[in-house]
Amino acid sequence: MIAENFKCPDAGRVVKTHTGYSAFIPAPLPPKLEYDNGLVLLLSQADTALSELAGVGRLLPNPHLLISPLARREAVLSSRIEGTRATLSDVLLDEAAAPRGESRETDLLEVRNYIMAMEYGTARLAELPLSLRLVCELHAKLMDGVRGNHATPGEFRRSQNWIGPAGSSPESAPYVPPPPEELMACLGQWELFLHERDHMPVLIQCALMHEQFEAIHPFLDGNGRIGRLLITLFLMERGRMRQPLLYLSDFIEAHRQDYYDLLQRVRTHGDWNAWLRFFLTGVAEIARDASRRATRLLELREQYRVQFAGKANVGTVLDQLFVNPFITAAMAAETLKSSTPTASRTLGILETAGVLREISGRKWGRTWLAGTILDVIQETPTCPILFNPAPVIPGR
Questions:
Q1: E strands, the chain, in order
Q2: How far apart are the C-alpha atoms of 135 and 68, rounded to whole Å?
Q3: Is the CATH code 3.40.1650.10 the one for domain 308-378?
Q4: Which residue, 45, 67, 123, 222, has most beta carbons within 10 Å?
């Protein structure tokens, strides 16, 4: 890491480690912020979009309907940023085939772990506030039995890590987080900030919380996924959403280099406003997209309920299809708590009506897909092209 690149004392300080390389220690939050007109406008737009999404969430008839497929979409996208290749269809089809979590395919296991951590964190908020303890519990769920599980799941690192291209070292990497002996002090300050209330807008605090978590990089692996998961959990804990509907990985994936560059620019130049503009733009765009997507799914569900009114078994299976649009006769029988022939007849009604189509081509162990539902779930949102942040001028 080149110490001279870190030009802003207010952002943090560079230290020389006992082995000779430089590392960065972020300053305690919050920084001094300038709320210019552009930032205030973006904050208002993001806050409005998030409130509208929360309103849609209150219309959900069942917490598992709609939330479940959106959460799985986030798990796929967040894991993809870290290099997995699983698609949403892969994950949903795998769950239909192995609903108890028996999948052995590595990428799918990583996505399933993310889903497990997300669901665990959402439930845990009822009894434990966001804290270092909960962060460790989430990490243990995320890293259990997958690549990186050698990296002490659920434990903060006791050795140095760094952020850079493959083959880089602490000397050559663009960024080296706090050394192990400084880690717990940094995390303690981060947790104190996490617990502050009513000192600043929630979305601004959320953006700062995420940026500093990534700067501290407290685990040997899984930091990015935990950091993105904390955004959703923070907004839920602060009462901005009752249901976990906002996930920023889609926006981050679409603008990945901007994301990394702006996080680094906070460290090197203290440019919090550029980062905040990026974050608030992402919240506004993804909240609007999630509202549209959830509304379309609710409308489609109502359309089907009218179409199959009076057919209780069909309605029950339809609700399951909004959790996972892939289904087998065994899954339908479990959902209906009925025999397999009864479930098969129900699937036949939906297939005849064009809601389902058989995709396995087999006579036994067949799988059906509700394609219209899947199309809505996995449709790619249209994210705007962001202006690049102001270029770094030598000497500034």
A1: 12-16, 22-26, 326-328, 357-358, 367-369
A2: 22
A3: no
A4: 222
